[in-house]
Design a protein that fits this description.
Layout (H helix, E strand, L loop, with lengths): L3 E4 L18 H12 L7 E3 L6 H4 L5 H11 L9 H4 L13 H20 L5 E4 L20 H11 L5 E5 L6 H6 L6 E8 L23 E6 L5 H19 L3 E5 L17 H18 L4 E4 L10 H12 L12 H10 L40 H13 L13
Parallel strand pairs: 1-2, 1-3, 3-8, 4-5, 4-7, 5-6, 7-8
Protein name: Acetoin utilization protein AcuC
Pathway: Ketone degradation; acetoin degradation
GO molecular function: histone deacetylase activity
Length: 409
Amino acid sequence: MVSTAIVWDEALLGYDLGPNHPLAPIRLDLTMRLADALGVLTGVRRLRPDPADDDLLATVHRRDYLAAVRAASNGADRMPSGLVDHFGLGTVDNPVFPGMHDASALIAGASVAAAREILEGRVSRAVNIAGGLHHAMSGNAAGFCVYNDCAVAIAWLLDQGVERIAYLDVDVHHGDGVQAAFYHDPRVLTVSVHQHPRTLWPGTGLASDLGGPAAPGRAVNLALPPGTSDAGWQRAFHAVVPSLLAEFEPQILVTQCGVDTHREDPLADLSLTVDGHRTIYRTLRALADTYADGRWLALGGGGYALHRVVPRSWTHLLAVLTDRDLDPDTAVPAEWRSHAQESAGGIAMPMAMTDRERHDEGAVDTTELGDVCFTPWDGDVSQDVDRAVLATRRAAFPLYGLDPEDRRD
C-alpha cells in the first residue's frame, strides 16, 4: 500500500519577501485550504519540520554565505560594507527581510524531513510544497531563493548512502542551482524542462549543458519555445525523460513541481493549463513507480498566478501523491472561492478544478498512464517543440548508449 507524508507548518509562511513580491506565501495558504476543503489530505501523515542547521546547509552552501544571510536577517545595517550585494542579497529579486535565515532554514529542513520519511521506509512518497527553491547557489541568493532546499535534500540523501538520484525539474525556469550543485557528481541525474534560456531568465539550460568531465550526461536540459502548450510539453517530455530514467535506474525520484508554466503566469511565456499540470503529476507518479520503486520526493517551486492557478494545480499534486486523483470537473468549494477572491482584491476565481469549458476541443489528453505506455516519438521536426527535443536527444542520448534518431522510444 502506498503511503504519503506532507511536511507542513504554518511557520513555512514566514518565507515572505515583502508585500509586493511575486513569491507571496498566500499561494501556500490557499493551497492547503483548498486541499483540506476537498478532503485530499484527510488522514494523511503530517509532519512539522525543524530548521536545517548550519552543518546541514553547508553540504550545499558556503559558510561565509550562511553567515551573510544570518547577519542580513538581523538587519543589513549590521553587516560589513558590501556583503549584501556580494551575496545576492538586498536585490529586487531577493530583498532582505527579518528572520530570513530562520525561514529559509525551515524550508530546507522541511525538504530533508520529507526525504528522511522516504529513506527510512515510513512512506513511499513525501511532499514539501513550500520547497523547490532551485535557483540558490552555493554562495549567493538568486531568483527569489535564499537556500536551495532541493540540493540540500539531495545532498542529505547522498550522505545517507543513496547511490543514484534522479532530479526532474518542471518549473518554467531552468533548475540552475541544483544543476550547478551536482554538475560533477555522477550519482545525480538532473533533468530540467523549461522555457528556452534565450527567452527567459536565468539564461542557462541549453541542450549542450551536459555535466562535468566526471559526470557526462548527468545534466540534461530540454529548452522549450515560448507558447508551448500542454500537448507539446507532454510530447517533448516523453520523448526524452523515460528513456533516460530507464538507463540511469534511480533509487529515488526528486521533483521540483513549479507551476509557472501556466498560461496565466505573469512571469513567463509557456501555455500550459491546470489540466496539463495534473497530467504532469500523474506522469511523475508513473515514472516513480516504474523506475524508482515508487519512492518520490515532491517539492514546490515557482508559480505567480497566486490565487487562480497555484492552489488548484498544487491541490492536484497533493491528490496525485495520495492516490486521490480529483476529477478535473470537481467544483471549487464556494467558501474557498469567496476567501480567495477577497484576498485577491475581488478577482474572480475559477468554478472548477479544470481550465476546460465543458470538455472543449482544447482539453488536454489525460490518457491513463498507469502502465507507462508512452506514445513513441515519431521524429517529426516540423515544429519548434520537436526541434528542441531533437537537440536534447542528440546531445544526451549517445552518452547513455541511446540512438537519438530512434523513433521507437
